[in-house]
Write a structure and sequence with these properties.
Immunoglobulin-like; 2 helices; about 50% strand; about 400 residues; 4 domains; mainly beta; single chain; six-stranded mixed β-sheet
């Protein structure tokens, strides 16, 4: 019996409170004596309230008499509506305040409810901007509601809280969008966006404010092709910058044309082997400056020279020519002699001639006469674009010709 009494004690206020309802509310709270507080979101600016009542007991019909709370008399002394002989009753087009319904007939009781019209306030503005950052300024206000202590007539504050959230469309970086009303980003958008702040309160009511932002930020960007190869390496630079007006390219090789002021410069030739990190600096028509240094770097291969000791000019498409393996050579000189001292082949090449060279095909002095199988002597002299001189005894030796 003790447990049954406890259950009735806990549930009875909830059962009684449920006899008042308010269609279309955003939230329902309760006073200290468990009277319902109905919250309406006022998104339209013209929201009114409605309260419906049914008798918690009895078989009906019932008489419903409605009253409005008066702060002057500190009681429900203002008559609103009388509706006799019905099973339920409603009052609508209600302003904020307290309402009481007296039920009589099949059962006598009174029910009290409160109506509040809620509209948070939001304001989004631009606080400041430069080429490097954007600072937003927001305002977030929520309504404060007071119901009345029915015994004393004194106001009692209804707890409420505020939340806010910044966003943008298209999406851009906004640091701590829900922690500060004045967020500042040092990653300003590169495209025009609409900034928006959304303000909400504990009752689920929401207000939004937005403004269009026209960006002034500039960003330096470019691509290169190729990024690696032997000297001389011709590299094409393609501008991918945003809002660049004035361009300065620094190719970092200290050549006579190591700087260009074109937005898409002519292809640049790197002659010296090494690593290069060219830099682009741009200025927008608003005076905003940005720069980018290439990473990873352009790599121009160091010079190399490797000499084979055998080749087989038999027409099978494999190792048919005596061809040195080389990289980044400024020029090369090749002379080949028979064992009797007869020069059977000579070549000197640089630039395009060197790049087109296919090596010695095993014919004597570019004729159709085929050199006999055996040992041949070579003398090779080459010079690299990195100023390495290939002219030692290591580049004088023998090669074997097999057919």
């Amino acid at each position: 019996m003790r447990y049954f009494f406890l259950i009735i004690t806990v549930l009875f206020p909830l059962i009684a409170a449920a006899q008042l309802s308010a269609p279309g509310t955003s939230a329902v709270r309760h006073t200290a004596v468990n009277d319902p507080v109905f919250i309406y979101c006022n998104s339209s600016g013209s929201q009114k309230g409605t309260i419906s009542a049914v008798s918690p007991r009895g078989t009906g019909p019932f008489n419903f008499s409605w009253y409005i709370w008066s702060d002057i008399t500190k009681s429900f002394s203002v008559s609103l509506k009388n509706e006799p002989g019905v099973m339920n009753s409603s009052v609508n087009n209600l302003d904020e305040g307290g309402y009481k319904v007296q039920i009589s007939g099949g059962y006598d009781t009174s029910l009290v409810g409160w109506v509040f019209i809620d509209k948070p306030y939001a304001l989004a503005e631009l606080k400041n901007r430069t080429c490097d950052y954007v600072a937003l300024k927001g305002k977030a206000l929520i309504d404060t509601f007071y119901y009345r202590n029915l015994s004393t007539g004194l106001p009692v504050k209804l707890p409420n809280g505020v939340k806010y959230l910044w966003s943008s469309n298209p999406t851009s970086i906004i640091p701590f969008p829900d922690l500060t009303l004045i967020p500042q980003t040092f990653d300003p958008p590169l495209v025009d966006v609409t900034y928006k702040i959304q303000v909400s309160d504990s009752f689920g009511c929401v207000s939004e404010s937005s403004f269009p932002y026209v960006t002034i930020t500039t960003k330096a960007d470019f691509s290169v092709d190729p990024i690696k190869g032997e000297a001389p390496l011709t590299v094409t630079f393609t501008d991918k910058s945003v809002r660049g007006s004035i361009y300065t390219w620094e190719f970092e090789d200290h050549s006579k044309d190591s700087i260009s002021y074109l937005n898409n410069p002519d292809p640049h030739i790197y002659y010296k082997p090494g690593e290069y990190a060219p830099k682009l600096t741009i200025v927008s028509d608003k005076g905003c400056v940005d720069s980018l240094r290439l990473d990873p770097k352009i790599v121009v291969d160091p010079s190399e020279l490797h000499i084979p000791n055998v080749f087989t000019p038999n027409g099978d498409g494999m190792n048919d020519n005596f061809m040195v393996e080389s990289k980044s050579l400024r020029y090369i000189s090749v002379e080949i002699f028979s064992q009797s001292g007869l020069k059977v082949y000579a070549f000197f090449g640089e630039g395009e001639t060197l790049r087109a060279w296919k090596g010695w095909d095993g014919n004597i002095n570019t004729s159709s006469i085929k050199a006999s199988p055996g040992v041949y002597f070579y003398i090779i002299h080459a010079y690299g674009w990195d100023d390495i001189d290939y002219n030692s005894k290591d580049y004088r030796g023998t090669v074997y010709l097999y057919r």
